[in-house]
């Protein structure tokens, strides 16, 4: 059984590398298995489908995202959101294919309704922090949506070199959202 888990983890890691280099948009199961050196028959011994693999890749990437954040319990929820925003923007610049796969692809992204929030550490953390940081007249859901929309939109502007990252602007915007 451990060998299967090792093989499965190896396939997940190879898939992350393929997505990081080539994107996921035109990645068929046949292309993917060829790129990672596996037959489609062997693939199905470890995953039910490409979507099953992509779900597990999303969870793995979310775990990695959380580990790199290094959030501390003694930091305020607002400060933790700022850390997430900063890291999100920088990752969007340095690994745009991964971030697009993880957060923007409607079929396999973390926002997909078929993925349980408790399985995905980054979404669970953002939802908790949003509730804690919300000092506005907005509902927790609206505050989360506005905050997340700003972070994602700003990251896209920075990635496309329309603007440069400005930590002060991010802090000011999120402060206004939290206290509006």
TrEMBL record:
Keyword terms: DNA-binding
Membrane spanning stretches: none
InterPro entries in the record: DNA-bd_HTH_TetR-type_CS, Homeodomain-like_sf, HTH-type_Tx_Regulator, HTH_TetR
GO molecular function, one term: DNA binding
HTH tetR-type domain boundaries: 5-65
A Pfam match: TetR_N
DNA-binding region location: 28-47
The protein's name: Transcriptional regulator (TetR/AcrR family)
Naturally occurring in which organism (per UniProt): Lactobacillus hominis DSM 23910 = CRBIP 24.179
Lineage summary: Bacteria, Bacillati, Bacillota, Bacilli, Lactobacillales
């Amino acid at each position: 059984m451990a060998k299967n888990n090792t093989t499965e983890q190896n396939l997940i890691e190879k898939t992350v590398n393929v997505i990081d280099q080539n994107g996921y948009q035109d990645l068929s199961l046949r292309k993917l298995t060829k790129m990672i050196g596996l037959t489609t028959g062997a693939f199905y011994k470890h995953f039910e489908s490409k979507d099953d693999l992509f779900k597990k890749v999303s969870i793995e990437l979310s775990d990695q995202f959380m580990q790199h954040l290094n959030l501390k319990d003694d930091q305020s929820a607002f400060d933790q959101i700022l850390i997430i925003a900063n890291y999100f923007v920088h990752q969007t610049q340095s690994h745009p294919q991964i971030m697009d796969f993880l957060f923007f692809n409607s079929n396999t992204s973390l926002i997909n309704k078929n993925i349980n929030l408790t399985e995905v550490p980054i979404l669970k953390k953002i939802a908790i922090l949003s509730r804690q940081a919300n000092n506005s007249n907005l509902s927790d859901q609206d505050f989360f949506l506005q905050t997340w929309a700003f972070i994602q939109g700003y990251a896209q502007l920075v990635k496309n070199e329309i603007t440069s990252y400005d930590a002060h602007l991010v802090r000011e915007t999120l402060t206004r959202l939290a206290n509006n």
